[in-house]
Request: fold
Amino acid sequence: METNSQFTVKFWGVRGSIPSPGEETVNYGGNTSCVEMHIGGKHLIFDGGTGLRALGKSLQAEASPHHAFVFFTHYHWDHIQGVPFFFPTFNEEDCFYIHGQVPPDEEMMQMEEHFNHRVLHVNSPVPVADIRAQMKFHDIVCGETFQLDDITIETAPLNHPNGAMGYRVTWQDHTAVYCTDTEHFPDRLDENVLHLARNADIFIYDAMYTDEEYHNSKSPKVGWGHSTWQEGVKIADAAGVRQLVIFHHEPNHTDEILDGIAEQVKEARPGSVLAKEGMELSAIPE
Reply:
């Protein structure tokens, strides 16, 4: 039961690049990026990958009206694929506050125009004219800090092709950081990521690859815009993070492979976990 004193993080989609359903991905899930935070009675949703569809079905099972704040890191397919199938948007009683930064090549647009004509219109098989919910748009300047009542949200640029934005969410001295689709630097820790992650209770980090995969001479992943769990551990240690959450799993990583990675991560940094669909964590230590 939700209360006004909670700060929880729930994972609805944890994969990167493309959905990967099947018998070999049942345990961790095959849906792409979507994370929900319940904070002091508010719903915050981060990214609209295919996991957003399941989140929407969960909301539909609850009584209307629904109000939620939606935040996009960027607009690659795996972060917007679920948007046309988020069926609460077809309910006129519901209201969603859409936050994001327009990509650099569309900087003359406002967020509302970008969302309707770039995210929805050209990608949606569902008639966007049927959307009935109130959609209120907020343009973010990456690097700014802003408030949702007593919730503080900090943003910072991430190292990803075409750009991406990380989020630090703080309420009553507790913090969760959503930092996906970012690539580490070979010679230093990313100052932007370190700043977002400082002393966080929960640090969700894009660790799509292992170091071995990232540097594989036959198929190197350098420049693809993603990091490794080993780099996630380095950041978490340097930033004083309480719990590291490995996120944005490689679509070819089966449950068996991820189980093996989970053991290595726990050994390297006790208390760390790999994100799974349906997993819920509290940013407030027990």
User: Anything to note?
Assistant: The mean pLDDT is 93.
